[in-house]
């Protein structure tokens, strides 16, 4: 696979959720190998940032966990109690087989099927982003945190250039729902020269 090749057709573009699910269901078998080969750094960056804000034993929900790359990064960083959920059953099967997660479940698009405050930390690595979950996913995720709970997420470069995602982040902060306690731009996919902001929000 050359550097000019796409990871997946039109990956960073708006699409209906059903089409997104089809893209990732068809990609489940090779996803992890492909993005790892391309130098996917964001999950490790999120996990490293979280070590400065959360204890190792803190229960964490890996929201949109895919095949488990984010969970693996959390484990490597020393976190011990991780649950995972995803809307794509084929991806979640890989995550479950990894043995990283305490429990996993398939969720429905737009459904946040866990109690408010159930997780002191939620991560969403590459989830609320162009071509994946829509911008309006951000506010309900913040709402599922108890006060002082943390949401760690990433906005890659195409997402940072999309007004709707920028506005969603600005809205949760300007409304007083959350405060940014960490934000840093760095490598997202090394092979294609793409960066991302790793962001940690604290629920007010």
Which tags fit this structure?
single chain; 204 residues; alpha/beta; Rossmann fold; 8 helices; 7 strands; disordered N terminus
Question: How does this model look, in words?
Answer:
With 204 residues, this protein is α/β, with parallel strands linked by helices. The chain has one domain: Rossmann fold. Helices cover 33% and strands 22% of the residues. The chain has eight helices and seven strands. Strands 3-2-1-4-5-7-6 form a seven-stranded mixed beta sheet, sandwiched between helices. Strand 1, helix 4 and strand 2 (82-86) form a beta-alpha-beta unit. The longest helix has 12 residues, at 163-174. It is globular, with a radius of gyration of 15 Å. 42% of the residues are buried. Mean pLDDT is 90; it is low at 1-5.
Counting structural domains, the number is 1
Number of helices: 8
Succession of helices and strands: HHHEHEHEEHEHHEE
Low-confidence stretches: 1-5
Question: What is the class in the CATH system?
Answer: Alpha Beta
Assign an overall shape: globular
Q: Which structural category do the helix and sheet elements fall into?
A: alpha/beta
Strand arrangement across the biggest beta sheet? 3-2-1-4-5-7-6
The beta-strand count equals 7
> Ends: how far apart?
45 Å
CATH architecture: 3-Layer(aba) Sandwich
